[in-house]
Amino acid sequence: MTTQAKALLTLVCCAPILTEIVSGNTPAHAFLDPRVAVFLVPAYSWPLLVIRELALRWRLSTLGVFVLGLAYGVVNEGLLAQTLLRYEHVPINQFDRYIYWGGFNLSWAVVIVPWHALLAVVFPLALVGGLFPACAEERWLGKRAFAVLAAPLVAAVIFVSVVRTPQRQMLACLIAIVTCVIVSYVLRGGRDVKIVKDSRRVFPFVFGAVAYPVFVAGSIVLAANRVAPLAYFAAVGALFAALAVLSAHYRLLVMPATARLSLGAYFAASAFTLAGGIAHRSVEPILTGAMLAAFFLGIAFAGLSGSGMPTGSMQELPRSAG
After folding, report:
1. Is 45 helix (H, G, I), strand (E, B) or coil?
2. Where are the domains of the chain?
3. pLDDT, tens digit (0-9, with 9 covering 90-100), for 208-236
């Protein structure tokens, strides 16, 4: 098996695991059901592969990839799961009955859509780039293969948007998706990949492990306390912007630091699953969370390399630190 084939297979297999199982949204044993795998692999791996190839063709920077990730977040939580439309029974109940307008739970949307952009798009691509640096910047699909994957995906998104109810909200989701794709196209040409000699292992991992609960738990606390809508959006936006600025300042948006930051975030997400299992005295999430947390910790310090993550226009210098 070629390196490209191994990398592609890894991306396809890990995409649903890095979101559904790591977050605890889907129990690990569910993957033993072929029907679950048949749904989750196309739902996560198919769009991610298309986004990866599109990012290379458009030479998108990390920001451009993130914007495409926002489009995917709307597809996942808007068109498919429709959690963006829920007034009650939101996956995290602190967002129930809070800032619901125009048929959308906006308090939940500003958290879960960026969450998907990072944990379902940006971070998996960074990890695979770190694991397979030799082909991180290569297109894995030719023009015909890319068209065969991309065209049905676009058609499926449009079809679901048109035929699924409530129609007004579905069309609004489609407009949001198209807008994100257009913005990412405007950002094309910003990809500037550099090989950065960076021996830091602890700091990027710890930053990711801390940033994840700061954003997620911080947003939950704000929602639970029912702060005024404008204050809520300002605080959530400030949290996210601050973490992004710090990531750029500490050169965490270049490989291999990005991959280790991603592992830190997944470690924190696994710890959330572990904590939830302990709180509910449930054996499976305890075991799953503990095993995944140990796995991400081990991978982070076993060593990752590669130049597979775009840096945008930043000028990076070699740096080594504990």
Report:
1. helix
2. 3-302
3. 999 999 999 999 999 999 999 999 999 99
Contacts of 59 (CB under 8 A, 6+ apart): 188, 189, 190, 191, 310
Q: What pLDDT score was predicted for residue 35? A: 85
- Using only the alpha carbons of the chain, give its radius of gyration: 19
CA 69 – CA 46 distance, rounded (Å): 13
- Residue 267 tokens read as 């470690």
Residue 317 pLDDT class (50, 70, 90 cuts) = very low
Exposed, middle or buried: residue 321 (CB in 10 Å: 0-12, 13-18, 19+)? exposed
Cα 30 off chain centre by: 21
Q: What pTM value is reported for the model? A: 0.91
- 101: which strand partners? 104
Q: Please list the alpha-helical segments (H only) found in the chain.
A: 3-16, 34-40, 46-58, 62-74, 106-116, 123-131, 143-163, 167-186, 202-224, 229-249, 257-280, 283-302
Chain centroid to CA 53: how far?
16
Helix axes 167-186, 143-163, angle to 10 degrees: 150
